[in-house]
Write the structure tokens for this entry.
Amino acid sequence: MKVFINKRIPENGIEILKDGNLDIMLPETEHPTHEEWLQSCKKADIILSVGGKNKYDKSFFDACPNVKAIALFSVGFDQVDIAEATKRKVAVGNTPDVLSRATSDVAFLLMQMVSRKASYNIAKVKSGNWKDFDAMEELGQELYGKTLGILGLGRIGFEMAKKCKSAFGTNIIYHNRNHNEPAEKALGAKYVSFDELVENSDIISIHANYTPEQADLFNKDVFEKMKENLIFINTARGGFHNEKDLFEALISGKIWGAGLDVTNPEPMQKDSPLLALPNVCVLPHIGSATLEARSGMARLAAENVVAFSKGEKMPTCVNPVVYED
Ligand code: DGY
């Protein structure tokens, strides 16, 4: 079977594909256009899809009827129209677990950076603006005993909650589709409604799976209900927040700060007004960017491809219903 990999991945993934006797296709140019990408997809049976730019929707599946499976190099699967893929019996795999620690590390890092205005202070040092000690300047806020609100307490959210609990003794509240009983038991996490999460948290960290219905979930109305000391952390998908409303909430003092590893759009433009704010820290979507996580992702994505090519169920399949008769 022909597998098209649209971008380079760690070598351990390639080795697994080679051992699986797959015919590997790579992009013909370094920065393929959308049309070139589509032409390559048309020739493939399976896509190993790296990065969130390419959308797998109805028009993709119409254009590429030969594609039988998509192995995503990500835990998020928002770039695939899962209902459409399932309708066409296209199996979709993702890479859960292996990046939970790395991604939650970035959420934890951003929370601390924002609480001490680290990006802004680093910029001050770099630009030669480190001034004399001032007892009233650049005051951050401590996180001890605060309330962490998690939207989407799954694997990544659980890791974030665990770290916050042990480092800062935070109370954990969360909002999910379902109750997370292990987290309630282990961390004393309390299930609350979305409104309660918004109104009672000192820190909100998003770890939910993104769907188009959640576009701009964090908007003007929601920011207005938050506490003034609120630190907003998004390491999930930029679509969850409205960037203009976030900026307004920050400059008007409705909330205290924001740490983003994902933006809307991505990449964030360098003249985004958010970048000028002292209580904002932005990273370029590096949640899973560790050697360990990326090699785990390469392994899982390649194993999904190999399993599919052998007629077996993908080990981490998003739509296992495609295997039912
Ligand atoms: C993921 O795995 O979903 C990360 O955000 C990388 O895209």
Observations:
- The chain is about 35% helix and 15% strand.
- The two ends are 22 Å apart (CA to CA).
- The longest strand covers residues 147-151.
